[in-house]
């Protein structure tokens, strides 16, 4: 154990002697970059000084400049996909025209910033779409229910909680 301690002590002493003899000076001093010159914030490094007057702009654009409209290639839909076909259950029928509020039931307005319209009355039903605040919808069911059946201006039908609907426009 004493031998190991003496060996470590001799190794550390040898390293200190070598470092004091060879460690003088900075061997990387010749590789250190010179400090940058003070330049204005608007001037890039290596750019001409900003104090010189700028050359006047020519009256007309040089002939070698090509307008951007000629440089941009036209957009081509290379993979349009197959033509759309109606679902089998709707084949041969025409979709109903979009409903506009005021054709049937009373007009209600969404009072919250954003409300989910659901497929059925209750939060357990799937979300059909989201309605932004102030959207006018047509009530297609009783107004006294907790969930009111509605139709959007685009013709989608669903249910919204009655607490988020009002008869007065925002």
UniProtKB/TrEMBL annotation:
The protein's name in its UniProt record: SH3 domain-containing protein
Pfam families on file: SH3_3 (PF08239)
Gene3D superfamilies (alphabetical): SH3 Domains
Region of interest (Disordered), residue spans: 28-48, 65-105
PROSITE patterns in the cross-refs: SH3B
Domain of life: Bacteria
Domain SH3b: 105-169
Annotated Low complexity bias: 33-48
């Amino acid at each position: 154990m004493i031998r190991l301690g003496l060996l470590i002590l001799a190794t550390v002493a040898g390293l200190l002697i070598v470092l004091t003899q060879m460690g003088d000076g900075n061997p990387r001093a010749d590789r250190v970059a010179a400090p940058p010159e003070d330049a204005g914030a608007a001037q890039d490094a290596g750019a001409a000084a900003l104090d010189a007057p700028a050359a006047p702009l020519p009256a007309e654009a040089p002939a070698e400049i090509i307008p951007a409209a000629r440089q941009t290639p036209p957009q081509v839909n290379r993979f349009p996909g197959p033509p759309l076909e109606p679902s089998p259950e709707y084949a041969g029928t025409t979709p109903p025209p979009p409903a506009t509020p005021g054709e049937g039931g009373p007009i209600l307005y969404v009072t919250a910033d954003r409300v989910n319209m659901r497929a059925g009355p209750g939060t357990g039903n799937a979300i059909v779409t989201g309605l932004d605040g102030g959207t006018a919808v047509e009530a297609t069911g009783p107004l006294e229910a907790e969930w009111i059946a509605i139709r959007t201006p685009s013709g989608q039908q669903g249910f919204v909680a009655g607490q988020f609907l009002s008869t007065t426009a925002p």
